[in-house]
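User: Modeling request: complex.
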Amino acid sequence: MTNMESSGIDRIVKELAKIVPEKYILTHIFERIKSSIDTFPYEAERRNLPYAIVMPKTKEEVSEILKYANRIRVPVFIRGSGTSFTGASRYQVPGIVINTHRMDEIEIYEEFGFFECGPGCICESVAKEIETRGFFLPFAPGSRLIASMGGLIANNTSAHVVDASIGKPGDYVLGLEVVLPNGEIIETGTKGLRRPAGTDLTKFFVGGDGLFGMVTKIRMRLVPAFEMAYGIAIYKDLKSLAKGVQRIYRERRPLPLFMEFMEKKTAEIGYKIKGLEIPKGSVILFVSIGNSKEGASQIANQILSSLVAENPIEAQQIEEVELWEKLWSSREVIGSYLMQESGNQWSSAEVVSNLMKLEECMDDASHFNYDLPVLSQLTLYLFGHIGGLTMHPGVIIPKEWDNEKKKRAVDEKFQREAELNLKYSTCGGEWGQFAKRTPFFIKRYGKESYELVKKIKKTFDPNNILNPGVLEGEPQQ
Amino acid sequence: MNREKMTRDLDNVDEEKFIEDLKEIILDAAKRCRNCNYCFTICPLFHSTRGFMSQTPSGIMQSINYALRWNLLKREDQEILRDLLYLCTTCNGCVLRCKSKATGLPVLDAIEAGRKLLREMMIGPLPQQRKPLKDIYLYGNPYGEKPETRVDWLKGLNVKMIPPESAEVLFYVGCTTAYEPNLHPIGKSLVRLFQYLHINFGILKEEVCCGEPARRMGDEGLFREMMTRNLDQFKSVGIKTIVTISPHCFNTFLNEYSSIQEEIKIQHYTQFLAEAFKRRTPLFKREISSVITYHDPCYLGKHNQIFSTPRELLKMIPGVKLVEMKMTKEESLCCGGGGGRMFAEVEEERRLSDMRIAQALEAGANIVATACPWCYKMLQTSIQDANLGNKIVVKDVAEILSEELN
Ligand SMILES: Cc1cc2nc3c(=O)[nH]c(=O)nc-3n(C[C@H](O)[C@H](O)[C@H](O)COP(=O)(O)OP(=O)(O)OC[C@H]3O[C@@H](n4cnc5c(N)ncnc54)[C@H](O)[C@@H]3O)c2cc1C
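Assistant: Request completed. Predicted assembly structure:
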């Protein structure tokens, strides 16, 4: 699909204005730019800018937009908050962008045991809304302050949460309302608290990378809040740290809700900003959960007993909340501190290990960039969600680099991420599966699997209207 | 740092260099912006507009950035860019958010640099903002009021006029309180409080605008002129302390006037009263039964981290019940009056001050207290427009204190 003459764009706007009030359609260049860039450090490209950005409020409006787009064969991109880390929100062809932010209603049905929200709700707002009633949002992306529920569900990312502890967001999705690419509106799932057995179309859309339909309503189970206990372990080397984590699984410990780690050099930075005494090694921080404080604390002790077996320099529960908050935010703010110190942009990969080879994978992650032409020019930092066996090796990309070099850096990052996840027979547990990760998908699961996904996509979206480019993957440099 | 740089270069009146520096501020900040969009949800515009991506802090900053890089300052894009840049209320929320969670960028400096650039190119400000700027230039206030009527509200209050008289403390009233009859009670309350505290204070006979609206609307030249006029006056009357009503004047004197802070102590009246009440404990006449919520003015709170002082003042009143709104302190919602928006109708999905009143009611308050004449006006308009006067009233902290004093 090629760029359109401005008369064609005027026609699109005219038609869209029959569906949504004109004030909810923008076509100016500035909205078109900001609505098609993402966190990648390089500039937008003029030829890929969308034609128009439209903000529907209802599923019927979404349906009409998609029907129209099918009639004239124009791509439609669904945009939550545009914070995707895989390139899914950096469009490769022009089209119509549906911004979901007006679909931001949330209804809490305590008597049913679930809440329903529009895809444009911001995770943080939903969390605050349900937390005041004693519930807990069962996922925690770093982008919680801004990511939309629609984007989150499309990725089905457990993010910082340890999957094996409470599962992925999809485990809590009871049902969805979806507008298919052809404009048909469907409902999936249940209003009960048991998710359907057998075929459940919900699964195509939760973690569907926005390929098969636009989610217009999400129904999720209300999860009662837990009590928490906090713990820390510091290891001289990453090897023992990895062994400690393996023990937790092997010794059948109840898993923590969160378990983060920072390699020593990285931890030093976080500790410094928070005014903490510099750690003597690499740090694990974890949060265990229980129905009572004592319960959570008992579990923390069980986790600690596994961690202690690998001879940490220090391992203990942290009871002083103020200290814990400092420690936890030393991990949370690292990326931003690195950016602030250097005046440049953070960029990281997601390397996921299997349990058996965690030590080796940790070693690979800590040498992530050593032989890469562009990335080896930069210092490597390492942290991640070690409870989920996930590592985020990352670098700071200098703002002075030109667009081409920045692109090469991003591509190298995804290539190395793919190599390592292939080596360990794993895959990313965050961010989504396609766009920059499509080459990995093909290598990891084979051409047959990829063709199968393409066929499924064709079934849902015969004209490839919805989010084209995501499944095809961005051309690599 | 950027502001200092801009001011310094203006001294040399090197226009080309001035423009280059403005561009550098924008390009540098935008290049470092990661588009993480964390700034969206703290921005009042995200709540008041429709959530379009260009109508957010990083969206506005990227717009001016791309306008420069892609040479988009052509006719059809000019007005759109101008409207985007002037949407911002300059509340500083994005700067705080970016500092605590992201890259720590001077987002607001970049947006204001963009406004200055547009002003230089005769594209900005918004058409309705031209008159207030002209009025500041001609009359020393943005309302086009006569300078000689500026002190009319003081009749019968027995306040020193500087010059010819002199005083230890200069009570800088500001244009809005001086000229808006329904804000006179704020000024009068402060006079009463100062007299109660036996403060040796006076008011400038020929007070003029501090220039804040000019700077916010991108008119750096006019701002500089007002700064010079004020500095000359302050110096000639030998003032040691300035106390302001408006957080905008306060911020301007404190952070934007060059070389005054070393010689003159600048305080917002809430700070001044808090110190004075330590020396003389106020006696209140009764217990009050009001439920008060305090609305943080952006230029007091988010710009200058004065969050607790006004609240502490209110808590001194016996019986007072202070409740917090959903968005408060660092996350407080702007009333919509800052950044030159007091002088322009901006199209919004929801008016910020309406949302704020709804939040105050939700918190269970029957008084929404504030410490800024513009916030006062904005909130009062919302109460009146929605006919909510029987449920909630807006009062300045000074008014409340003065009413309750014995
Ligand atoms: C600072 C920062 C921290 C982050 N931390 C994490 C993290 O810890 N874990 C993690 O996994 N990710 C993280 N991310 C990446 C990103 O925020 C998440 O993947 C998030 O889920 C994307 O949400 P969004 O609203 O921005 O979606 P967008 O970027 O707008 O969209 C992402 C994809 O979802 C699709 N989509 C959006 N809405 C819908 C809908 N209603 N129906 C169907 N498809 C839809 C889009 O078309 C697109 O393909 C982070 C990003 C940033 C900037």
